[in-house]
Amino acid sequence: MSFAAVGSRDGPRIVGLGFDRTSIYDPKTFTEVLGPRLLRPMMDPVLIPHGSELYALSRCPAVVGEAEFMPWFFVFDLNLPYVGGATGWREMPPPPVFPCRLNPLEYRNPPEIRVASYAMVGSHIVLSVQQDKGTCAFDVDTKKWEMVDSKNLPFIGHAVPLGDHRFVACSKARDGAAAVFSMEVAGKTELSITELLVESKGIVPGHFWCAMGMGRFSSFDVRSVDPGPEGKLEKARIVHRTYSQVEGDDARTNSVVIVKQQRQIYKLHDRSCHLAYPLPVVAALTL
């Protein structure tokens, strides 16, 4: 199941989507309601919020079977009323890098496509898959896809926005180390992307990170030790780090300074509860 923080006219909501079930949680009233169902089940979809809209994209599109089958791309607007069923989720055109058109030979042995990297750049969702198919962008205004680069995105996973067209992500060239990129879709058909020089004592990406606005972002990870055959953790700790972006001293160097502001460690409140090993972080959200 995937989660995302989405804005609405009634305030922020946490939306969870897994298989074909949509869950909408109100953090102010601590209440949860069931949202509309998807036409096709998705096990671990990519969720990309934009205003009151939430875009859901299959992470591993399939051409056979029930799960992850077409359609692969949907949008749900929390400001629009919906009736039970799947009427709340609207089908969108699939990315051109997905296996949309296969010949009979390819259909017998379909390629295994998986979303490798993505970001919300202005009014565009930019996306690359594991194969070298280039980068495509979805315009949320025109609801159309375009190829914007012959190369894949130079980072892994989700790029977190810092503001001023800057994003922090795990760099491919640096073996997954954190890096800052400047990204902009020019003319709706060309992606401009540059890795900036970062002055920092080290950024720990953790399992998840999220934007906090005003050039600040956080990373979360779970520190744990293999407990052995019992499969329980009594001393698991959730580590939360907060970073802030500061402009470089010389603007001509096109550099940024990243400063760690805070480091907090949390542990379980209920000593009778244990955490399974290994323990991945499911979501990190900012409301």
TrEMBL record:
<dbReference type="InterPro" id="IPR015915">
    <property type="entry name" value="Kelch-typ_b-propeller"/>
</dbReference>
<dbReference type="Pfam" id="PF07893">
    <property type="entry name" value="DUF1668"/>
</dbReference>
<protein>
    <recommendedName>
        <fullName>F-box associated domain-containing protein</fullName>
    </recommendedName>
</protein>
<dbReference type="InterPro" id="IPR012871">
    <property type="entry name" value="DUF1668_ORYSA"/>
</dbReference>
